[in-house]
Design a protein that fits this description.
The protein is an alpha/beta fold. It has a single domain, classed as Acetylglutamate kinase-like (Carbamate kinase), CATH 3.40.1160.10. The strands form four sheets. Strands 5-8-2-1-11-13-14-12 form an eight-stranded mixed beta sheet, sandwiched between helices. The protein has a two-stranded antiparallel sheet with strand order 3-4. A two-stranded antiparallel ribbon has the order 6-7. α3 packs across α4 and α7 runs parallel beside α9. The chain is globular, with a radius of gyration of 19 Å.
Length: 298
């Protein structure tokens, strides 16, 4: 029994250098995939976020919700349509996207974190439309698809947006007061219209604007893998471009890696792509020397 307690003490002690290093630094966490759906992983995530805040790390959570949006659309008799991996978002679809992201999912995550937060740490839910947090415009369709090496579709993709500016004053005010902002990736245009924005891109833009210490993507994969399917623990900017060019990095991983590289260029210290299916994956990546995912560095 004593040996077990001593081992627990050693584990806590080993985290001390990292806690000291990251005290009062900002982490932006993109929350999505299985970590949002499985109850045990949801609890693990919420506890991790609360722990980070209690040891002095400023945390912003940005969440997705693609599967839930598709399910809700189908309940309303609307067939989800994707163009080159991007959700076609007409006015009716945008209304449901905002209802699901800013309503159901956002408030559920806020309530989940607050269940474990105690008396001094609270999560607060925000849409990108609140306080013009995420100013947006319609995405440049041609530039977006060419950047991914895909054929540019002829059809209009509707209210799909890209971030023009982040209202850091709002986030800084909440962070300084000890709150955990939880952001739904819905942007606001010049005329007040709503835009559906990729959650990975939203997280990266927020990390860039805050000059965050870390940008962490929780995914349903171990991390970035090489041509042989082996996990790459540390990925440089040059190697990332090479793997994209060779087609090794493909599909949904491309926006994550490209967003990661842009975040690094803007001053974010490190980006981590972590398997959210592993309980306490955030703590394992941040507070251990080995980590469990891929860290992307300059």
């Amino acid at each position: 029994m004593i040996d077990l307690l001593v081992e627990k003490a050693r584990v806590l002690q080993s985290a001390l250098p990292y806690i000291r290093e990251f005290y009062q630094k900002t982490f932006v966490i993109k929350y999505g995939g299985s970590a949002m759906l499985e109850e045990s992983l949801r609890e693990s995530f919420a506890r991790d976020v609360v722990l980070l805040r209690y040891v002095g790390i400023r945390v912003v959570v940005v969440h997705g919700g693609g599967p839930q949006i598709s399910q809700t659309l189908e309940r309303f008799g609307i067939k989800p349509v994707f163009v080159g991996g991007m959700r076609k978002t007409d006015e009716q679809t945008m209304h449901i996207v905002e209802m699901v992201l800013s309503g159901d999912i956002n408030k559920d995550i806020v309530a989940l974190i607050n269940t474990y937060s105690g008396q001094k740490v609270y999560a607060v839910g925000l849409s990108g439309r609140d306080g013009q947090l995420l100013k947006a415009r319609k995405i440049d369709k041609v530039a977006y698809f060419k950047d991914l090496g895909l054929e540019v579709p002829e059809e209009d993709i509707g209210f799909v947006g890209e971030v023009v500016e982040v209202n850091t004053d709002l986030l800084e005010t909440l962070l300084e007061k000890g709150y955990i902002p939880v952001v739904a990736p819905v942007g606001v245009g010049e005329k007040g219209e709503a835009y559906n924005i990729n959650a990975d891109v939203s997280a990266a833009e927020i990390a860039k604007a805050l000059r965050a210490e870390k940008l962490i993507f929780l995914t349903d994969t171990e991390g970035v893998k090489d041509a042989n399917g082996k996990l790459i623990p540390t990925l440089s900017k040059v190697k990332a471009h090479t793997l994209i060019g060779e087609g090794v990095i493909r599909g949904g991983m491309i926006p994550k890696v490209r967003s990661s590289l842009k975040a690094l260029e803007a001053g974010v210290r490190k980006v981590h792509i972590v398997d959210g299916r592993v309980p306490h994956s955030i703590l394992l990546e941040v507070f251990t020397e080995e980590g469990i995912g891929t860290e992307i560095v300059q």
